[in-house]
Amino acid sequence: MAVNITTTWLGDMKFESTNPSGHNLFIDAGQENGGKSEGYRPKALLLSGLAGCAGLDVASLIKKMKLKVDDFKIDIEANLTDEHPKYYDKVAMHFYFQGDNLNEKKLQKAVDLSVEKYCGVMEMFRQFSELQIKTHFHNKSI
Fold this sequence. Notes:
Layout: E1 7-11, E2 14-17, E3 25-27, H1 42-64, E4 71-80, E5 88-99, H2 104-118, H3 120-126, E6 130-139
Parallel strand pairs: 5-6
Antiparallel strand pairs: 1-2, 2-3, 4-5
Helix pairs in contact: 1-2, 1-3
C-alpha cells in the first residue's frame, strides 16, 4: 500500500506537511537553527509517531480485552547521537497505567503485543535504535 505525503516549504525553515488522514502539520526549526519554533521538530515527531503507534495498539487491545483503565500515557526518553547524521541510538519507552484494580497481567500482554507484533513504527526503530520498554502500574485501590 503506497502512502503519499506532500511537504511544502512556507519560507524560512517552516514547512507544511499533508497526512493521509486529511490533517496537516507544521514542521519548523528552532530559533537556534534559523526557524521560529512554529512547528514540530522532525526527529521529535518520529518519537511522537512511535508513541502514537504503540498507544493506538494498546488502546485497541484495552477495548478488546474490556479492561478498566482510568489513565494511560507513554513517556519516551531518547538519546541523540553527537555525530551527523544525528539519530536516536537509544530509546526508552515507559508505559504508565492508572486505575482501580488494574489487570496488570492483561495490560502487560497488550504492551507486549504492540511492542513485539503490531507496531510497525517500533519495528522501524529496531533497525537503528536500542529499545528499552518498561511498564508502570499505579493502582489507586492499593
